[in-house]
């Protein structure tokens, strides 16, 4: 009887252990596929020249912050042109929220803005301790997707709508407006953003004009521009069953999408497919 009781306790302990680990693994909705397009090359926004001037003027500036600006300034400018969010604000937020790109969330999950899962998020997720223990954060394949998601986060929520009444070059109003709208709980959040913008001359990126820059992106990438993540539900209407004689090329022609996209959606490393294989198709 005693042995049975001990066995029962052992099984109960194992079940509790398994249950407690469920909250710290990566998760995603198995019924949904979120495809992040491979980022295209972006043209320079004179970030190297700006950084050189800064280093000559003040050699004690943080090297990780400078490296972050050099790498991500073009993305912030592109987002500015598309969503009317000052590049200086986006960059300052990225630097601050990601710990200059060196936080665990940025390094392992490409989440540069600390965006949590929130209701309706169907992509991959990770769990980190923040305001509360084991909070759910979004995980991205590319930093570019994180930047785009940050833009969508601000443009699709009513509480941030008043920000877009401000002049795109008025980064001061934007900094205080973000705090007013509840983006951060830290009372010094606007001051921290403004210090980064002023110390590292991030306002210079707000001056990059759209027309020539957009054209240079297309010239660099043969007309291709960075597109937003694609969300595809795994349902019958989005599935194609491979028939005899079909190739990825013939299937791509049938549905009017590229072979590259079909391979990316279905995680195919080669063009080899087999009869009866089901492929997810974006129609």
Q: Architecture of the largest domain, CATH level 2?
A: Orthogonal Bundle
Average pLDDT works out at: 84
- Major sheet size, sense and barrel closure: 2 strands, antiparallel
> What is the CATH level 1 assignment of the largest domain?
Mainly Alpha
- What gyration radius follows from the Cα positions, in whole Å? 23 Å
Describe the overall structure.
- It is a single chain.
- With 283 residues, the protein is mainly alpha-helical.
- It folds into 2 domains: 47-220, Orthogonal Bundle (Lysozyme); 235-280, Membrane-bound Lytic Murein Transglycosylase D, Chain A (Roll).
- Helix content is 46%, strand content 8%.
- The protein contains 11 helices and 6 strands.
- Strands 1-4 form a two-stranded antiparallel ribbon.
- The longest helix is centred in the N-terminal third of the chain and has 21 residues, at 63-83.
- It starts with a helix and ends with a strand.
- InterPro entries: Glycosyl_Hydrolase_73, LysM, LysM_dom_sf, MGlyc_endo_b_GlcNAc-like_dom.
- This is Peptidoglycan hydrolase.
- Residues 238-281 form the LysM domain.
- It comes from Polaribacter dokdonensis DSW-5.
């Amino acid at each position: 009887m005693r042995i049975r009781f001990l066995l029962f306790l052992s099984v109960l302990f194992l079940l509790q252990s398994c249950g407690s680990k469920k909250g710290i693994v990566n998760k995603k909705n198995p019924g949904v596929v979120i495809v992040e397009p491979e980022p295209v090359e972006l043209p320079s926004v004179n970030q190297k020249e700006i950084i050189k001037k800064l280093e000559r003027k003040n050699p004690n500036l943080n090297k990780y912050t400078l490296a972050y600006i050099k790498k991500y300034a073009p993305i912030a400018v592109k987002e500015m042109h598309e969503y009317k969010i000052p590049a200086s604000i986006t960059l300052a937020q990225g630097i601050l929220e990601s710990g200059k790109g060196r936080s665990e969330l940025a390094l392992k999950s490409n989440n540069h803005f600390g965006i949590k899962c929130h209701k309706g998020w169907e992509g991959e997720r990770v769990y980190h301790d923040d305001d509360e223990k084991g909070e759910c954060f979004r995980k991205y394949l590319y930093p570019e997707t994180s930047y785009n998601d940050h833009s969508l986060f601000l443009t699709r929520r009513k509480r941030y709508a008043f920000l877009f009444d401000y002049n795109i070059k008025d980064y001061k109003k934007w900094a205080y407006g973000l705090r007013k709208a509840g983006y951060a709980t830290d009372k010094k959040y606007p001051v921290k953003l403004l210090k980064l913008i002023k110390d590292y001359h991030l306002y210079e990126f707000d001056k990059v004009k759209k027309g020539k820059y957009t054209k240079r992106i297309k010239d660099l990438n043969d007309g291709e521009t960075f597109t937003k993540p694609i969300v595809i539900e795994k349902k019958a209407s989005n599935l194609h069953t491979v028939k005899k004689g079909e190739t990825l090329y013939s299937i791509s022609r049938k549905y009017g999408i590229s072979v590259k996209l079909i391979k990316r959606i279905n995680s195919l490393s080669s063009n080899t497919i087999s009869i009866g294989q089901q492929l997810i198709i974006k129609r």
